[in-house]
Design brief:
2 domains; about 240 residues; alpha+beta; OB fold (Dihydrolipoamide Acetyltransferase, E2P); 7-stranded mixed beta sheet; globular
Amino acid sequence: MSESVPVKCVCSSVALALIGTLFFGVVASPQTKAARVEANPLSGPARVLDGDTLDIGGVRVRLEGIDAPEHGQSCRKRGGESWNCGSAAANTLEKMIGSQTVDCTPSGQDKYGRTLGLCRAGTLDLNNEMVRQGLAWAFVKYSTLFVSAEAEARAASAGVWQGAADPPWVYRERRWTSAAPEAPEGCAIKGNVSSKGNIYHLPWSPWYNRVKVDVVRGERWFCTEADALAAGWRPAMAH
């Protein structure tokens, strides 16, 4: 899959978030301490799916208020060297958790049915630490909880802040825009029938360009993730 051209991020996350596309993001109400929804805590061993998503006992948990680079996404170091910031984010989250139980406080769901949560591994605040280490952005379009952690990361030139990097919402939009002209009616999500079941691949999936849609085999294109989920397909696991 071709690499997105990195762009030096010189504007604030607040400004960048405003240009993110509505249908790729989380659509729960703005999450503040005052507006948090009371829900039963979620606790157990966690599997890391990517830099901001966990699976806890079959429940998919989206770390609230942050947006990590996509798995196949590359960033730049100060000298221009490319590094896989998406894989680094997932690997770091995995190391933070280790063999510890993860405890999450849910606050609702996004439109894909993922539980939004503030999560801890032991005493470590996973949401905050991912942003503080520069391996996720504060997702200020939906929450301002981690703005100070992002400011700390920027000041330290940590992670994605050491060089040029596209915020993930910009990266996703560019990938979609690139893939849509080649897809029927611009519906760029590929539904693949595999030995592991019916799986859909988004344009920023690491395997997207290797997947060919064969309608004879029952494979198909989707316009939105909501359409794919409603049809009984599940997202590809990136990590």
